[in-house]
Specification:
Length: 492
């Protein structure tokens, strides 16, 4: 069952509906009270982490005590430190090096960008600690990854697809792995990784300590957690599908063709120092980035069609301030952890309203303020209502729509779904029988009952075969000579 740290009372088991007493965990104000080693404390101080967030204060103590953890936390709540610091603390207690072709800890993530950022964060937390890590990701050199794994590593950060390839090729053995983390589990399930995740967990075995973090608690995530976690402690930084309170959200109504001009108007404000513009599709992201460059803005695009080097170069330029605007798709929404993002602009609303929460979570991180602006045309009003229903808020709206798009919103049924057909109408069987009943038999007689006897064979007016007249000039079959005597008859 899942136990939720709180201040007394009982907790409801999320899957089985069983009430159980919960553990009393007092929220701490400093990392020292969490029992972390001095080396990690020095690394946190150097990295600028002064006080733990809510998810860190609730998730670290149970893991330090050897418990499995189920964390429900929104993006930007500090989940990386929540599962990374307990692992680093345990690795410092281990003697020697990791065995060849093995990893002591395994962290599974859905995207390459998220893996890179977790690797950078763990290295900053470790400080002077000797730590060996490897990124096992698609789109990067497989040979380099195999070489690092051959020496053995402390932490392997991987996407499920590439990791399963190396495991199947016997380039990595998971029987030495002691810590398993599933970050952004809901996103991994959406991408179809549930099969590889279960296979990887089965190869590690039951001797592991597991942590599962997710932004939402869908039924699929709950079912996966039930199969992977053993008596976990459930921690929840905020209710699922909620947005950070410090983010200012607003909507601008604009025609689809006027969005480009509206975006340029927004970017003319110097307060938009570091901006992410989200597009729904890869081609749309390239088009927006191209238009921004034409309009005189420094912009870079990042999406799944870009190579890993191109994506990392775009992220690095955006983080360093060389690029002011980063245009991205939803696939990268949870893998962008760049400090100081002031604004998020939704050039197009996502198809899944939950992706809106992950998009705007790129700003307002770690207690900072941020702003999210959404451009909505006439075709996206339904998606906007889905977003407002999900976050349980009505977003302030400004601007107007062109007359044509506004009419399409107020009267969506004005256009027929299918092109009307002309000509003779088609009748189904019931309509045909009803028409016959109304018309009768055509000779003034009343319509016949449905139980009329079956019609016999129609022979009137048609001669029988035996009575048919033979054509003139052609003898009867019996009077024709046999095949062998035809020549004699002809010569006679």
């Amino acid at each position: 069952m899942f136990l939720t740290p709180a201040h007394g009372g009982t907790a409801q088991c999320a899957l089985l509906g069983i009430s159980a007493p919960i553990e009393r965990l007092s929220l701490t104000k400093t990392f020292e009270q969490l029992g972390l080693p001095a080396t990690l404390l020095a690394g946190l101080e150097k990295a600028g982490f002064a006080t733990p967030t809510k998810i860190q204060a609730e998730a670290i103590p149970p893991q330090m005590a050897g418990r499995d953890i189920l964390g429900i936390a929104q993006t930007g709540s500090g989940k990386t430190a929540a599962f990374g610091l307990p692992i680093l603390s345990e690795l410092m207690k281990m003697q020697g090096k990791a065995r060849p072709m093995s990893a002591r800890a395994l962290i599974l993530v859905p995207t390459r960008e998220l893996a890179v950022q977790i690797d950078e964060a763990l290295r900053s937390f470790a400080g002077s600690m000797r730590l060996s890590t490897v990124l096992v990701l698609g789109g990067m050199s497989r040979h380099a990854q195999v070489q690092k794994l051959a020496r053995g590593v402390d932490i392997c950060i991987a996407t499920p697809g590439r990791l399963m390839d190396l495991v199947d090729d016997k380039k990595l053995w998971l029987n030495e792995t002691r810590f398993l983390v599933l970050d952004e589990a809901d996103r991994m399930l959406d991408m179809g990784f549930i099969g590889p995740v279960k296979a990887i967990a089965a190869k590690i075995g039951s001797h592991r300590r597991t942590a599962l973090f997710s932004a939402t608690m869908a039924p699929e995530v709950a079912k996966l957690a039930e199969g992977l976690l053993k008596d976990p402690v459930r921690v929840e930084a905020s209710p699922p599908a909620t947005t950070v309170a410090v983010i200012d959200q607003r909507v601008i109504l604009s025609g689809s063709k006027a969005k480009r001009g509206e975006l340029n108007t927004l970017l003319a404000d110097p307060a938009l120092e570091k901006v992410i513009v989200f597009s729904r599709t890869k081609h749309g992201a390239d088009r927006v980035a191209k238009n921004l460059a034409i309009d005189g803005h420094e912009a870079a695009a990042i999406h799944g069609n870009k190579s890993q080097n191109a994506r990392q170069a775009a992220l690095k330029g955006f983080a360093n301030g060389n690029v002011r605007i980063l245009v991205a798709t939803d696939i990268a929404a949870r893998g962008i952890d760049v400090p100081g993002i002031t604004h998020v602009i939704n050039y197009e609303l996502p198809d899944d309203p939950e992706n809106y929460v992950h998009r705007i979570g790129r700003t307002g991180r770690n207690g900072a303020s941020g702003s999210a602006i959404t451009l909505v045309d006439g075709t996206e009003r339904g998606k906007l209502r889905d977003v407002e229903r999900l976050i349980r808020r009505t977003l302030p709206t400004s601007g107007t729509l062109p007359g044509g798009e506004a009419a399409s919103i107020t009267a969506p049924t004005a256009q027929p779904r299918h092109k009307p057909k002309t000509g003779k109408p088609r009748w189904n069987k019931g309509q045909k029988e009803a028409g016959k009943a109304r018309r009768g038999n055509g000779d003034g007689a009343p319509p016949r009952a449905d139980n009329r006897p079956p019609r016999g064979p129609k022979t009137e007016g048609r001669p029988q075969r035996d009575s048919r007249p033979q054509r003139e000039g052609r003898p009867q079959r019996d009077s024709r000579p046999a095949r062998g005597n035809r020549r004699a008859v002809a010569t006679a």
